[in-house]
Amino acid sequence: MSTTDVATRAEVGSVLHRAPAGAKLVGLAVASGALLLVRSPTGVLLAAVAVLAAYAAGRVGPRAAWSQLRPLRWVVPVIFVVQWLTLGPAQAAVLSARLVMLVALAALVMLTTRTSAVLAAIERGLAPLGRLGVDVGRVALVLSLAIRSIPVLAALATRVRDAGRARGRERDVRAFAVPLVVGALRQADALGDALRARGLDD
User: Fold this and answer.
1) Which domain does 193 fall in, by range?
2) Deepest in the core among 15, 54, 109, 185, taking most CB within 10 A?
3) pTM (2 decimals)?
4) Residue-wise pLDDT tens digits, 160-169
């Protein structure tokens, strides 16, 4: 299920779906900053409860949530092991949990917000820069495309990993990295073609 599919389901009618996109983006920034200050396992536990409560308020089910967090299953174990070796198990758990929750919060915003609303909110937030000659619409478009590219690249990484596993090469870094880079470049070319077709290539 894509972020657009979830965000455009009018029948959901949750508090988060009805909240303004700008308010959610500001809330995401504040919550992310607060998460970065969490240092203890107790703080992580309380933050996790808060994130789960936010998902409940947004009426986002486990399947939709897992579709956003699934790519982390390859990243978090590596980060956890590295942090364990350098900082110890407690801090490794804290840092890994914070990463998962940061991604979960960003995913929640995208799951409950139309992409067009995110773009409009970014444009309003950057409006003062327009007086300085900044092309606010173009900057907002770039930021919006960056946000939308995250789940696309995550899905690409999952497909590459699954293909490698089917060939018995799930532990081969080159077999994962090369197709991923090639696929990302193809995706970028396709996006560039689409932008050029709309006269946004300059």
Assistant:
1) 115-202
2) 109
3) 0.68
4) 878 877 887 7
